[in-house]
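Good morning,

Attaching, inline, the backbone tokens for the sequence recovery test we're adding to the shared suite. The designed sequence is right after.
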């Protein structure tokens, strides 16, 4: 049992040290109000996911000052960035004297439903695209308002940690710019409908028959109600938040 003097002289017990340890133990990803407003605007501009990169402040990599989209194919369950557009975005950022740590580590995308948890596709993308950098974060903003952020460290012993997301109103911020944001949405978000082509039976006139499930041995294919229909996996997705 340490005596009073030991407690006082132990650097871990000084207020300054404690604060430092606390901030190390519980970091959060903070957004400038402007960056956050832009994310919400783009999230709600259509029915699909949208994605982009968070641009951080040089001296505070967990403070996102801007959110930038690149040309992408977006569906209700995925976003796929155009490789050339990503390369162009990186070039522009380097030209602005920014380092990759400031613009290429925060992958932010929206979910059109209530659930902010990463899908298996998100996990694959995060591993494949961001697995080579020393660290990265996957950030998901659901339309329902919930957020998810996981920091992953790929160097050293590695590891990952979920951290909270917050908007930092203490920093000065500019007004919104819906016109510019909408132009960016229209230029970059290319909506892709996800369709499922179920097994249909056709009669001699080529008209699809939709009367009941079709038996295919071990599996039972459900009756399709249309040639194309949109999938809403989030409807059935079990969200633990
Ligand atoms: Zn996702």
């Amino acid at each position: 049992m340490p005596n009073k003097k030991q407690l006082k002289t132990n650097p871990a017990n000084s207020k300054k040290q404690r604060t430092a340890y606390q901030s190390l133990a519980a970091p959060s990803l903070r957004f400038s109000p402007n960056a956050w407003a832009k994310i919400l605007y783009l999230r709600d501009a259509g029915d699909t996911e949208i994605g982009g990169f968070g641009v951080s402040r040089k001296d505070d990599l967990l403070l996102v000052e801007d959110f930038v989209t690149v040309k992408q194919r977006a569906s209700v369950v995925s976003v796929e960035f155009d490789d050339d557009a990503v390369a162009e975005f990186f070039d522009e950022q380097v030209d602005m004297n920014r380092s990759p740590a400031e613009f290429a580590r925060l992958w932010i995308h929206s979910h059109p439903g209530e659930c902010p948890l990463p899908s298996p596709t998100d996990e694959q993308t995060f591993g494949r695209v961001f697995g080579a950098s020393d660290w990265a974060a996957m950030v998901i903003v659901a339309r329902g308002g919930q957020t998810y952020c996981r920091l992953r460290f790929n160097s050293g012993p590695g590891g990952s940690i979920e951290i909270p997301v917050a908007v930092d109103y203490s920093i000065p911020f500019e007004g919104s710019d819906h016109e510019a944001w909408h132009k960016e949405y229209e230029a970059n978000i290319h909506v892709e409908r996800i369709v499922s082509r179920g097994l249909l039976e056709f009669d001699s006139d080529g008209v699809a028959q939709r009367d009941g499930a079709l038996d295919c041995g071990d599996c039972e294919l459900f009756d399709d109600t249309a040639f194309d229909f949109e999938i809403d996996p989030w409807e059935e997705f079990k969200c633990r938040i």
